[in-house]
Amino acid sequence: MSATPLPPLRLPRCLLDPGAVHLPAADADGLVAVELEHAEGRFTAIKPYPAQAEARLPLALTPLLEPHAHLDKAFSWERHPNRTGTMAGALAANQREHHERSVEQVHARAERALDQGWRYGLRAMRSHVDSLGPGAEVSWEALLDLQQAWAERLPLQLVALVPVRHWATAAGEQLARQLLGRRGESAAAAGGVLLGGVLGAPFPPDGADGEGLRALLRLADGLGCGVDLHIDESADGGGAGVALAARLVIELRIGVPVCCSHSCSMSQLPVRRLLPLADAMAEAGLAVVALPTTNLWLLGHRDGHTPAQRPLAPIRQLQRAGVTVAVGGDNVQDPWYPGGDFDPLDLLRFSMPAAHLAPWQRQGLMPFTTASSRLMGLAWDGVVRPGAPADLLLLGASGWSDLLARPVPRRVLRAGRWLPAPSPSPLQQLLEALPA
Ligand SMILES: [Zn+2]
């Protein structure tokens, strides 16, 4: 079969084969102009594109990832808003919503989320699932069904979310065996189902949290599945949760991947305490998912004042210590965050001012691409090389500033085929139908 060429484009050097020494050096924005060819769903060639002709070439990325979502409650804001914007308000609305959850409802919400994410160019997603309370069973029923249905288009990892102390109970152990038994050992090994849990409040975590975390790590290690925690989602506690996780992972010699989602409160520590904690996390092999949208919205509330404290995982310090850090969207149009749309470019745009992540720097782009892929244990790291999946996000932007300035058109290539261009929403159609 003959190779199909793509139009000339500019790709970040960090998403191009490091072994491709025939390519010119990246420009000051970290970009290289190339021509790519593919056949039978895989890239076959990377050719340099003459520098003088690159002025208006489109920017491209490999498809991005969503390492932390909540598909069971996505799009529930309209019926269950939390206009206070506080954690307590979010939890109360979430609990009310739990009482009316049905399989059909979760199925519809999650399918909408997967479909949107896929069309926006996501190539994998990890969702936490409320796994205790009235809505738990229906959520798992709907999401396990969708995990199978979407396996080819958008692999979905599911994480059991309970208060972490639940894992120290007989019911917790039974839940783990039921979820992982249901999927079989191969699904756990492939990352299809993971165990998770919330540490606190109170912050810092208390003794029962410690016992719960110890039980969770032992269970997951025994079952061969990864762990993804909701940990230190607060301004208070000084990183006590992640310090405990690092200590226990080493003490118990845990061999499965352990991820600390949120990891906010350590950001409030003075540098002399923060840096050794980041080193301890790296030594334990912990990974971190930073969640800027939900954290900046829910944390730091003080008497209705504009917040001066912005608790958020200290991404750059963790990266420098050697911790794998990804950025996730967390909540989408639910009581915990009213915005979001499963668009990874929107999250990249938001994260630049929120977390000083500049996409023209390798460390700024990795949390959305290669680091996220490593954290999720995926087979492809997201780097274009001969033999890699012919997957690409081709953007209607000529450079980073153009991309950051506004939402831009995009086309998504998956296994060498272009996904259909998005059709305008009913409201867009209404506006476009107005007289000139
Ligand atoms: Zn979450």
Characterise the protein shown here.
α6 runs parallel beside α7 (271-284). The chain has an 8-stranded parallel beta sheet. Strands 1, 2, 3 and 4 form a 4-stranded antiparallel beta sheet that branches. It folds into 2 domains: 4-62 and 383-418, Urease, subunit C, domain 1 (Roll); 64-375, Metal-dependent hydrolases (TIM Barrel, Alpha-Beta Barrel), CATH 3.20.20.140. The longest helix is centred in the middle third of the chain and has 20 residues, at 170-189. It is built from 14 helices and 16 strands. The protein is an alpha/beta fold and 436 residues long. The protein has helices spanning 87-98, 103-120, 136-149, 170-189, 207-223, 240-251, 271-284, 292-298, 315-321, 344-355, 362-365, 370-375, 400-405, 426-432; strands at residues 4-5, 9-12, 31-39, 42-48, 60-61, 64-69, 122-130, 156-161, 193-198, 227-231, 258-262, 287-290, 325-327, 392-395, 410-414, 417-418. Bound molecules: zinc ion.
